[in-house]
From TrEMBL:
Superkingdom of source: Eukaryota
InterPro entries linked: CD8B, Ig-like_dom, Ig-like_dom_sf, Ig-like_fold, Ig_sub, Ig_V-set
Location, primary (coarse class): membrane
Domain (Ig-like): residue spans on this chain: 21-134
Protein name in UniProt: T-cell surface glycoprotein CD8 beta chain
One GO CC term on file: membrane
Originating species: Chelonia mydas (Green sea-turtle)
Signal peptide boundaries: 1-17
Record localization: Membrane
């Protein structure tokens, strides 16, 4: 299977990869459990690629090389790469925007890597943005933040200097309570005195006015 590698070489070393991917892959990253099944989607941005088949490659960080996975033509016939199990790798075509779904079952640690879909046009491979796949034995657990319990607040106590508990007579804040009450009592008393004096003045004026009125009536 030499011709897919020839297209890949021409794309990477001669014509160069396109800056804006003609293919859009989702999701960008997958974390999967060992022996599980995952899918990744490759959607074509233009309908001009609808008559073309689709390639799938895997980039391995460990070996630092591309591995040809498979090629699926418009008739949905697959051409698998070396050491690729057809029972675990499958490509299906979707109806939305000419999308293709790569399904990998019974995942293994060796399946980890970045998967790229690609189409061949004018002797050039146009790649997608890639989907990074990680295969782990257990998913990382998310620990809930522990709630910190605040110490109980101490009750506020009034302890004026120079006053002993015996003098306070069971009330620790008696000085703060009686002072406003005494002030209010004095204000009320002064207001009452002023009101009484005004009432007396008014009474005298009324008596004087009544006396003058009676005197003028007699004469």
């Amino acid at each position: 299977m030499e011709w897919p590698w020839l297209f890949l070489y021409l794309s990477l070393h001669i014509t160069g990869c396109q800056k804006t991917p003609a293919l859009f892959q989702t999701p960008p990253r997958i974390v999967a459990l060992n022996n599980s099944t995952k899918e990744m989607v490759c959607a074509m941005k233009s309908e001009q690629f609808s008559h073309l088949g689709i390639y799938w490659y895997r980039w391995s960080k460990e070996s630092q090389e591309f591995q040809y996975i498979l090629f699926s033509n418009v008739l949905h016939k697959h051409t698998l790469g070396d050491d690729i199990d057809k029972e675990r790798f499958n490509v299906s075509k979707g109806s939305f925007r000419q999308s293709y779904t790569l399904k990998i079952s019974k995942l293994r640690p060796l399946d980890a890597g970045t998967y790229y879909c690609a189409v061949s046009q004018y002797s050039e491979l146009l790649f997608g943005n890639g989907t990074e796949l990680s295969v782990v034995n257990s998913l990382p657990s998310i620990e809930k933040p522990t709630e910190k319990t605040l110490p109980p607040k101490k009750p506020l106590r009034c302890k004026p200097s120079g006053i002993t508990p015996a003098k306070m007579k069971g009330s620790s804040c008696s000085g703060f309570i009686w002072a406003p009450l005494a002030t209010c009592a004095v204000i009320l008393l002064l207001s009452l005195v002023i009101a009484i004096r005004r009432f007396q003045r008014l009474r005298r004026r009324l008596q004087l006015h009544f006396s003058k009125h009676m005197f003028s009536r007699d004469y």
